[in-house]
Specification:
The protein is an alpha/beta fold. The chain has eight helices and seven strands; from the N terminus they run E-H-E-H-E-H-E-H-E-H-E-H-H-H-E. It has a seven-stranded parallel β-sheet, with helices on both faces. Strand 4, helix 4 and strand 5 form a beta-alpha-beta unit.
Length: about 240
C-alpha cells in the first residue's frame, strides 16, 4: 500500500464467502487488513466467517448486488473503505447450447457480472480515497469461449469494457479486472457436475502451466492490483497460458 499502512486498510470483497474471494480474504487478513465479505447467503457468510477463524478484523454483510437499494445500503453502512473487490458470479443454468438457453439464466449472469459491478462502482466510488481501487473478475471465456458458453463470454467481454471506461471516469481511483482461467473452485460443480474432476484434469494436461489454477493464485493476483498504485484500466490474465492453446 502507498497511501496508508497495510494494517489500516479496509477492503470489501463481494463473493468472499467461498473460492477465490475467500482465499483473498484470508490473504488480506493475514496481512493485517480489515475485511468485509459480502454475499447473498447469510448461511454461507456465517460458514466463511468460521472457516476464516472468526478473525477480529473480519465482518460480513448480506447483499444482492443486482439490487440497487441493497448496494446503496452496503456502502451507507460500510463507511469509508480503501478497496472494493468483486469475485461474484451467478452462472447457474448459463452453460447451455444456444437453443436451450433460458433468458432468466442469462439475466442472472448479466446482473451478477455486469450490473452488480456497475452498481458497486456507482455507490462505492464515493467511499474510496483517491488512492483506492476497484477490482472486478472477468475470465478467460472472453478470449477462449467454449461451446455452450456464449453468455458468459459476452458478459466477461462487456465487463472488461466497463473497467476501461471506469478507470478513465473515476481517476485517480484505480479500476482493474482479474481474468482467471480454469480455477478449482465450487463453481465448477455447476458447470461440469459429476465430471468436474475429470474436466479439470483434462484441461491441466493442455495448459502450458501443467495445472489448473487454485484460489490462492487468483488471490495473489488481486493483491497485486490492490497494492500497485500505477496499474489501472488493466485486465490481468492469470490463466496458466490458456490463451495460448
Amino acid at each position: 500500500m502507498t497511501a496508508i499502512g497495510i494494517e489500516d486498510a479496509k477492503v470489501i470483497i463481494v463473493g468472499g464467502s467461498s473460492g477465490m474471494g475467500q482465499a483473498l480474504a484470508r490473504r488480506l487478513l493475514d496481512e493485517g487488513m480489515s475485511v468485509m465479505i459480502a454475499g447473498r447467503s447469510r448461511d454461507r457468510l456465517a460458514m466463511a466467517h468460521q472457516q476464516l477463524g472468526g478473525h477480529p478484523k473480519l465482518a460480513t454483510y448480506v447483499v444482492d448486488i443486482s439490487r440497487e437499494e441493497e448496494v446503496a445500503a452496503l456502502f451507507r453502512e460500510s463507511g469509508p473503505v480503501d478497496h472494493i473487490v468483486s469475485t461474484a458470479a451467478d452462472i447457474k443454468g448459463a452453460y447451455q447450447p444456444l437453443p436451450s438457453i433460458e433468458l432468466a439464466a442469462a439475466r442472472r449472469v448479466v446482473e451478477s457480472k455486469f450490473y452488480g459491478p456497475l452498481l458497486l462502482a456507482k455507490y462505492g466510488a464515493a467511499r474510496l480515497p483517491p488512492s483506492g481501487s476497484i477490482t472486478f473478475t472477468s475470465g478467460v471465456a472472453a478470449y477462449r469461449p467454449a461451446a455452450r458458453g456464449s453468455v458468459v463470454a459476452a458478459v466477461n467481454a462487456a465487463l472488461e469494457g466497463l473497467v476501461r471506461a471506469l478507470a478513465v471516469e473515476l481517476a485517480p481511483i484505480r479500476v482493474n479486472a482479474i481474468s482467471p482461467g480454469w480455477v478449482d473452485t465450487p463453481i465448477w460443480s455447476l458447470v461440469a457436475g459429476d465430471a468436474k474432476q475429470a474436466t479439470l484434469e483434462a484441461m491441466a494436461q493442455r495448459l502450458p502451466a501443467g495445472r489448473v489454477g487454485q484460489p490462492e493464485d487468483i488471490a495473489d493476483a488481486i493483491r497485486f492490483l490492490i497494492g500497485n498504485g500505477f496499474t489501472t484500466g488493466t485486465i490481468l490474465h492469470v490463466e496458466g497460458g490458456h490463451r495460448l492453446v
